Amino acid sequence: MDTQQISASSRSSSGVVHDNSRHTSRFTVVGNHLTQHRELSLTAIGLAAHIQSLPAGARIGIKDLAGRFPESEARIAAALRELEAHGYLRRTRTRLANGRIVTRTVSCNQPADRRPADALPGRECPPRPQRTVRPSTPVRPCRESEADDAHPARSRTHAKPVPRREPAPLLVPQPAFPAASLLRTATELLAGLHRQDPRLLLSLKDVDVLAPGVAAWLEREVGPAAVQHALTSDLPPEGVSRPVGLLAHRLTARLPPPPPFRAPATLPPRPIPLQNCDGCDRAFRAAEPGMCSVCRSDNSHPTAQEL
Asked: Reduced to 3 states, what is the DSSP secondary structure of residue 94?
């Protein structure tokens, strides 16, 4: 009986072909449940893989990540929210004994709902030195980034409520001459942005804050259509959590330069100034002081007494 020859399917050449080599140093184990997640964006998947490759204590704030990668702060913030919603990231704010508030970030290489019941906690994390902790302190099996002066045995149940922070006041460009017509056009433009994108629905307070910035653009000879395009184009696809902040940033960061100086047209001739007649004290127009035409004509014919 002849041996059957098995040939590779012709379809195998149309898909990806892996050329793998074994890593012996500087590598991170990432589960397929993350890399092939159906509900996470590619930005969130890549960000999770990057965070899992960092050492404990690395800074992963939004500004830190935005300074390291080409994605905007808005996209990175949205990706972090995705990872938090699916259990790959936990962020809590804790008040220390000295009153300082710190943000504790825990990166999970496998969310709790995907771990087997008999899995040992911390299987994928580097070993930690033995220490005594209170019974109420939960064991965190994943990498965490926390303040250096945070007490490791402090229970989160004793943390005081964090006071709510008011957002910083928004700064937008100001027009040199805030004419009423410019502010009226700016207000109408901002009030209609939600017709281009429903996420840009602004409140009355938001419009009052942003109107001077739009007026500054209009003052620089930028038409309303161009201003609208600058504010509504290339919006982040994952969502706009605070439209007034996004628009204020665009009005400031994309402010065009002032128009070039244009010399005025030929100036009209200056009017002949008024003079007071030296003879009759009546006003007349002349370049130099003197007598009006009537007094000059009278003086041109001498009287009999003068003769």
From this structure: strand
Lookup result for tokens 């936990």: 90
Angle at 45 between CA 44 and CA 46, to 5 degrees: 90
Q: What is the pLDDT of residues 114-143, one digit of tens each?
A: 655 444 444 444 444 444 444 444 445 454
Query: Helix axis angle, 224-232 relative to 204-219, nearest 10°?
Result: 120
Q: Which residues pair with 94 in a beta bridge?
A: 102
For residue 63, give every residue at least 6 positions away whose Cβ sits within 8 Å of its Cβ, in sequence order, or none: 73
- Closest-CA residue to 94 (of 149, 142, 141): 149
Task: Write the pLDDT tens digit of every residue in 181-239.
Answer: 999 999 999 999 999 888 999 999 999 999 999 999 999 989 999 999 999 998 888 77
**Residue 255, burial from CB neighbour count under 10 angstroms (0-12, 13-18, 19+):** middle
The domain ranges of the chain are 27-127+135-158, 180-253
d(CA 35, CA 47): 11
pTM check: above 0.70: no
Q: How many CB atoms lie within 10 A of CB 94?
A: 20
Is residue 306 within a helix (H) or strand (E), and if so which, with residue range?
Answer: none
Question: 3-class SS at 133?
Answer: coil
CATH topology for the 27-127+135-158 domain: Arc Repressor Mutant, subunit A (1.10.10)
| 78, 79, 85, 86 alpha-carbon torsion, rounded to 10° | 160
- Percent helix, strand, coil in the chain, to 5, is 35, 5, 55
Q: CA 93, CA 102: separation in Å to the nearest integer?
A: 6
